[in-house]
Amino acid sequence: MNVARASLEMKAPRVAVVSDYTLATLGGAENAFAEQVRALANVTRVLAVCPPSERLTHLGTYSGVETCAVPVSFVVPGLGFPVARNTTRLRRLLWRAFVSAGVEVVHLHSEFGIAAAAIAVARDLGIPVVQTVHTFFWQSQASVQTLLSFLGPAFYKAMTGFAYSGRDLAARAGDSALRNMTLSTALKVDAVVSPSAHQAARLREAGLRRVHVLPNTVQWNHSARPIRDVEGPLRVLWVGRFAPEKRVLPFLRSSVAALNRVGPGALQVDLIGSGPEFRAAQRLAGSRAGIRLHGRVTSEEIPNRLAQAHVTALTSIGWDNQPMTVAESIMALRGVIWSDPKLTEGLSEAGIAAFGADTTRLADRLTALAGDPSPVLAASESARSARTTFGTERFVNDILGVYRSATHPPTSSLLRRP
Predict the structure, then answer these.
(1) Domain topology for 234-389
(2) Which terminal Cβ of the chain has fewer Cβ within 10 Å, N or C?
(3) Which of 37, 24, 39 is nearest to 331 (CA)?
């Protein structure tokens, strides 16, 4: 056992947390990355590695955090996705950063060129690699399925230099291609972390053997108080990307239907975020009393917005594995109205079910809660115990265990050197 691996047995290792995604995008994976960097910095030195942004610079001001801003070739228009290839130049940059920071374990949050380069450097340095998978339920519109199935493998190979697994992972060919990108990288690491049990089950079915379930973490919201009563309208908050997979338009239609029944004096719906369906959402909401679209806000503003709400709504189905919205809501002692029964972490205690894609069912739930908010009060109280699921102490303790286990990969491992 080399010195870097031996040190894992004695103390918290110095960690490089790596992502291909830019923190300029306020998405769940990006927020999970930032929160985990801060949590780990409480016990060890952390090197945060991702494309440059003001948010990455700000992250570097935290005690215990260093940053490495990775240059990218271009950003995909409309998606905000930075593209960087696994090149000799990139590997040299990461090698210098890892050695300078004394990195002893690499923790990935993505699967493309930067992640691939980090794996290659870690192999050269003899240090373990762990990957948190956020993306095994990727899906896209029907119109691009054929295009994705043809271009996906070539794009992945060009970005990473890795072999493409090419397994049958979804009913639609394009969705399968997207998920194979995630799987192909996960097959190269020493241990995989899934924030949810249901995604972990799918990863194991796909052939991964060392999968640990560890929910995302959020900093403790010490000012949070449970909802004791509802004065005035029931205030429902929706936070996310305005995109088809988040089902923001169906949520708005349900909200309009509920408001038509109970009126704005009994129900107030607020939506935070931006994305390709924002204009359509504006048209749907119009100037209707009881619905407000606030656009994009910073992650630092979210706790205050949650404090002003009575309950939040999560309306995706089949897309999310363990949304940061759930962790943030429960940490703020707010229950969550949710539509996907496969999501369980925290929600089995503090969730209010509105299962299924039928907008009438969600409208009925909103209407009922506006008339009788007692389930909202109960969910808020249940969040007091549910929030330990997402606490930083639990996350740090568990992820350090994963790091230690990754130092002893089994001889039958699926891993291959890149």
Answers:
(1) Rossmann fold (3.40.50)
(2) N
(3) 39
